[in-house]
Design a protein that fits this description.
elongated, Tma16_sf, mainly alpha
């Protein structure tokens, strides 16, 4: 008598559609699960890499767009100003969100996701800039500065850029040094002026010279 192959007696291999059943704890099943996890990690790594490249490209393009074409390389002070502008790049959008919320409906929820994303990003960038340093294209280097200006946004060329960590303390140090030098120059100028004013004038000689002229 033929045995029915319906119901629970039917065995099916999910991997190739055959009628072979794979036990959940078998070596074949364990190997299959490992392979699936490995493939999943590879795909996730690819997505993460692509996302990082896109974010880096977006940053480099912003710097490229806002750099002065007549300046290369950038000084520490100019680099600091550029970073300040970069950190504040979304401030106008934040103001627009606040304005729309104030005049629209659902004021408590409208655009809240975008607003939070901008705020968190800005806080992180400020913290990096004031502590360990913000990663930027090395526009203080002539070759790197020129490379950025000529770049056309190709993701495949991103590895050619040498990034650097730039800290606010670097700008503060330069400004402090300049201020100190300015005070020194002013003191020297004032000293020279005082010495000139303190030179004694021989009144008798001046009168004698006047009489000789007459």
């Amino acid at each position: 008598m033929a045995t029915s192959k319906t119901g629970s007696s039917k065995k099916e291999d999910l991997t190739n559609g055959s009628s072979t059943f794979i036990h959940p704890k078998s070596r074949k099943c364990i190997a299959l699960v490992k392979k699936m996890k490995k493939d999943s990690k590879k795909e996730q790594a690819k997505r993460d890499t692509k996302l990082k490249q896109s974010l880096l490209a977006e940053k480099l393009l912003w710097f490229q767009k806002h750099m002065d074409p007549n300046i290369c390389p950038y000084t520490v002070e100019l680099t600091g100003e550029l970073i300040d502008n970069y950190i504040a790049r979304n401030d106008e959008e934040l103001e627009q969100i606040k304005l729309k919320r104030s005049i629209g409906q659902n004021r408590n929820r409208q655009h809240s996701g975008r607003e939070d994303a901008i705020r968190i990003t800005k806080e992180r960038e400020i913290n990096d800039y004031q502590s360990c340093g913000m990663e930027i294209p090395n526009i203080l280097n002539t070759a790197e500065c020129n490379l950025l200006k000529k770049w056309k946004g190709e993701l495949k060329l991103l590895p050619n850029f040498k990034l650097c960590k730039f800290r606010k303390a670097q700008v503060d140090a330069v400004l402090k040094k300049k201020e100190k030098q300015m005070h020194k120059d002013n003191a020297e100028t004032e000293s020279v002026n005082n010495q000139t004013n303190d030179v004694p004038v021989d009144v008798n000689k001046e009168n004698a010279d006047s009489m000789d002229v007459e």
